[in-house]
Design a protein that fits this description.
Layout: E1 14-15, H1 17-30, H2 37-43, H3 48-55, H4 58-80, E2 85-86, H5 90-100, H6 118-126, H7 142-146
Antiparallel strand pairs: 1-2
Length: 150
């Protein structure tokens, strides 16, 4: 009998990878470094502690690394999180898992903070988007530039 089911959230259950890349790219630009989107996108999946040293020196990270990571996190919550959508059939999957595990919880990895917070998980469960409707690939729209993305 199964006692637990563990899922990764970002990029697995929700379509967030491109949005994370845009948030990092904007944060890098804010701290003086223009990095092509493709280079940032290739690094997504790493925690900020592993991603930032790819583009910034140790000395730079000592000076403003924590501030940059905090800036990126706030930017993601404000401008990107509202654009995140679950992949097709995620809600159906959660409902099926929930039927077998009525005390289902969403837990963050303690060692590497993620944008997949409890509110994100609740939102996925409550999503009213039809599983039959496919959403277009994530694109940053012009109005998102005003909010600091892209």
């Amino acid at each position: 009998m199964l006692r637990a089911v563990i899922f990764d959230i970002d990029g697995t259950l929700v379509d967030s990878v491109d949005l994370h890349a845009r948030a990092w790219q904007d944060a890098f630009r804010h701290f003086g470094r223009k990095v092509p989107y493709e280079q940032v996108r290739h690094q997504i999946g790493k925690g900020g502690d592993q991603l930032m040293p790819v583009f910034f020196s140790e000395e730079e990270l000592n000076r403003f690394g924590e501030e940059m990571e905090e800036y990126r996190g706030e930017l993601y919550k404000r401008a990107c999180l509202p654009l995140v959508r679950p992949f097709p059939r995620v809600r159906k999957l959660f409902l099926r898992v929930h039927a077998g595990f009525p005390k289902m919880n969403c837990v963050r990895r303690a060692a590497s903070p993620s944008s997949a917070t409890r509110p994100t998980c609740s939102w996925v469960m409550k999503s009213r988007r039809s599983d039959k409707r496919r959403r277009k690939r994530t694109e940053i729209r012009p109005k998102d530039h005003k909010r600091g993305i892209g």
